[in-house]
Design goal:
Layout: E1 2-10, E2 13-18, E3 21-29, H1 32-41, E4 47-51, H2 52-57, H3 63-72, E5 77-80, H4 86-94, E6 99-102, H5 104-108, H6 110-120, E7 125-132, E8 135-138, E9 143-148, H7 149-158, E10 163-168, H8 180-189, E11 193-197, H9 203-211, E12 217-222, H10 224-227, H11 233-241
Parallel strand pairs: 1-4, 1-12, 4-5, 5-6, 6-7, 7-10, 10-11, 11-12
Antiparallel strand pairs: 1-2, 2-3, 7-8, 8-9
Length: 242
């Protein structure tokens, strides 16, 4: 499994939210590039970047910061946040990201999703399934739908999506660990690859995910626990490699 340190950009800084609440933020680095550089120097081989301003606005806002990260650091970068049109996805690809992460638009606009998958191939496209209370959330985690996780996964697979990010919003930023049975159910429903995000707080949480032995579980996104120095990048990757 791959460790993906998270760099969430809000108002030009690297921050972390609690349960997706924009009013409950903590700034960890004034420059997102400094945060990204620190994780790569510590041994990270991949980075997960979210344009929180873009997620809220509905279009990319921080591509300049993303391009600086991509240009300076020789690791694959995946980007989400506000990618709701073909033009926005093209701008992200032009900024140098390896994979784009689609959220709201993937559910709301089937033509858009098909267009992205056709233009850039499914291998470069992740769809983010963000869940609160067992139901999918959209619009930068500000709206909760009546759609369940399994319904969405089944629907997306039918449209050609082969890579998913699953986030339990209720656990995001809480450092209380994942619901392993929930992750197992989601991983078993996914026919392609899955990256988990939400609530990682200690190495035991990573051990639990690795211990599931689910073939579809490709990696895990970790934010606050790394910023709060609950463990290091090498310690985390060693657990995920075991």
């Amino acid at each position: 499994m791959i460790l993906y340190p998270a760099i969430d950009i809000l108002d030009g800084s690297a921050v972390r939210l609690v349960k997706g609440d924009f009013d409950a933020k903590k700034v960890y680095d004034e420059d997102p590039l400094d945060a990204a550089r620190g994780w790569v120097q510590a041994g990270a081989t991949h980075l997960h970047v979210v344009d929180l301003d873009g997620a809220r606005a509905g279009n990319p806002v921080n591509l300049e910061h993303v391009k600086r990260i991509v240009d300076e650091l020789d690791v694959p970068v995946q980007l989400g946040g506000g990618l709701r049109t073909l033009q926005a996805v093209e701008a992200a690809i032009d900024a140098g990201v390896t994979r784009v992460i689609l959220g709201t638009a993937a559910f709301a606009d089937s033509d858009f999703l098909r267009g992205v998958l056709r233009t850039w191939t499914p291998e470069r496209v992740l769809v983010s399934v963000d869940v609160r209370g067992g139901h999918v959330t959209t619009a930068g985690w500000t709206e909760t739908t009546a759609v369940t996780t399994t319904e969405v996964i089944r629907d997306l697979a039918g449209k050609g999506v082969i890579q998913l990010v699953f986030t339990n919003v209720d656990r995001d930023g809480m450092l209380e660990g994942p619901d392993l049975e929930e992750v197992r159910r989601v991983a078993e429903a996914v026919k392609g690859s899955l990256i988990y995000s939400g609530g990682i707080g200690q190495l035991a949480d990573l051990e639990g995910l690795a211990g599931l032995g689910e073939a579809s579980l490709e990696g895990v996104i970790v934010g606050k626990a790394l910023y709060e120095r609950r463990f290091t990048v090498p310690e985390a990757q060693a657990v995920l490699d075991s």
